[in-house]
Amino acid sequence: MKAKWILGFLAGMLALSPIQPAAAAEEQAIEDEIIYDVLVDRYFNKQIQNDYEVDALDPAVFNGGDFAGIVDQLLHVKEMGFTLLSIGPVFASDTYDGKQVLDYTQLERHFGTEEELKNLIKEVHEQDLKVMVDVPTQNVSKDHIWATENPKWFTGNEDGTLSLDTANPEVQEALILALSEFINQYDVDGLRLQDADRLDSGFIEDFSKAMKDIRDIYLINDVEMKPAPGLDAVVLPGAEEVLRNSYKQFDRDTSKMPAVLKESEGNLIRMDSLRSSRFIADVVEERGFPPTRMRLMLTQLLTMPGIPVIQYGTETVMNGATLPESHQILDLAVDEEMIDHITNLNTLRNSSPALRSGETEVLIEEDGWIVYKRFNDKETWIVAINNTSSTKSINLPADVIGSDKELQGLFESDRVRQEANGEYRISMDREIAETFHVTEETGFNKAYIAALAVVYLVFMVFLWIVWRKGKQRKADEAAKKLR
Fold first, then answer.
1. Ranges for the Glycosyl hydrolase family 13 catalytic domain (predicted)?
2. What does the alpha-carbon distance between residue 400 and residue 92 come to, in Å, rounded to a whole number?
3. CA 241 to CA 279: how far, in whole Å?
4. Residue 333: its pLDDT value, please?
5. I want to staple 230 with a disulfide (CB 3.0 to 4.6 A). Which of 205, 222, 334, 384 is the partner?
6. Beta bridge partners of residue 384, listed in sequence order
7. With b meaning 16 or more CB within 10 Å and e meaning fewer, what string describes 128-158?
8. Which CATH class is domain 360-440?
């Protein structure tokens, strides 16, 4: 019920306000995207024809997920409000996660055929979504097709895999050629360079130019690093640690959060990744309650600046402290409460330019009690997150909110009006998050009150007439008796 109420509220808000969905824009920028991150093998197994020696009970090997399986469950991604689907590496590989690439010119046979990948991309686009593919270069298979003829292109890793030397001009040329052919053949909307912090900076810039000369696609990375020429966005260094430390339990030190909010603009932000343990693993270690922890974390992540990257399984509160434990098969036979929460937040973000790329002002931060303002010249939101063990309050002056306004809460249905002293008082119970939309104060409906007054007056006149007629009738009856 709450999900339907919020979606209905947003629909009405959009109809009456200048806020417009991101999809309505003529051209979306990377800042407008919300990325849903999956591994093909761990999403959904649709085709048995490509189940070559799979074992769904062994998390270290191929489990059977394929391109057709993503198509089958694509509406799940669409309905949650994500705008960009990242499907991980798709090239022939020794491993289920696609990292140990064997050949950049061949698709992984467990995932499906060329036709099935093209169909996946077509279906994604028909849902008004975008699709992105990962490009691993630093942990490829020792049996990579280039390794025999060009051993000098590689350096060895401790785990037995190989890393391509992207400072080598021949390697640069080979990678640019292989990926140029790939994006010419497959209409993907973006590439994500894995381990970009280990790549030659000149290669990244040249690679980006070559790809974007073919088609204007996104190029991002998957590890924390400083911005680099050629990359549209990078993972903000330190943000994941700050977010996880702040929300894995209540009454946490959040003193670093204002800096993260300030620095996150234009960067990729996340609570965990396909490279790391799940956020829920931290929660379990701290003996926290996973659904509450996740709701607060998602409210923070999806209302702050930056480009959110959310892993598959977040909606099912997936756990996992190490790989491959954190790469479980997606199980959608779960309570839909978290799915609804993600849907509501994504819908809100997609509908609001201020939440995607507006300015940010932190109003208070006190060990888990954080309130901040997201705004542009057309709309204002107040986000209040009480991640503490007690009720918290804040009085916001009129110079922050404006005069004669009201704050409409979307999740707890709170409505805050300006008090006699000119301030707006927000009170939040423990472990609760709320997003307030600042609107003009509705006050009393004068026309409605006037109409009520008229009805009341007519009714009173009607009663008076009835009373007079009744009194006259009694007088007439008494006169008849006297005759």
1. 37-349
2. 55
3. 10
4. 81
5. 205
6. 371, 434
7. ebbbbbbbbbbbbbeebbbbeeeeebbeeee
8. mainly beta
Domains 18-358 and 360-440 share a fold: no
300: which 2 tokens?
Answer: 């923070």
Q: What is the structure's pLDDT at 19?
A: 47
Domain-by-domain residue ranges, the chain? Answer: 18-358, 360-440, 450-483
Amino acid at 308: P
Residue 329 neighbours by CB under 8 Å, 6+ apart: 42, 43, 56, 63, 65
Task: Work out the angle at residue 234's Cα, subtended by the Cα atoms of residues 66 and 85, and round it to the nearest 5 degrees.
Answer: 25
Query: What are the tokens at 129?
Result: 């979504």
Instruction: State pTM to two decimals.
Output: 0.89
Any idea what DSSP says for residue 421? T
Architecture label for domain 18-358: Alpha-Beta Barrel (3.20)
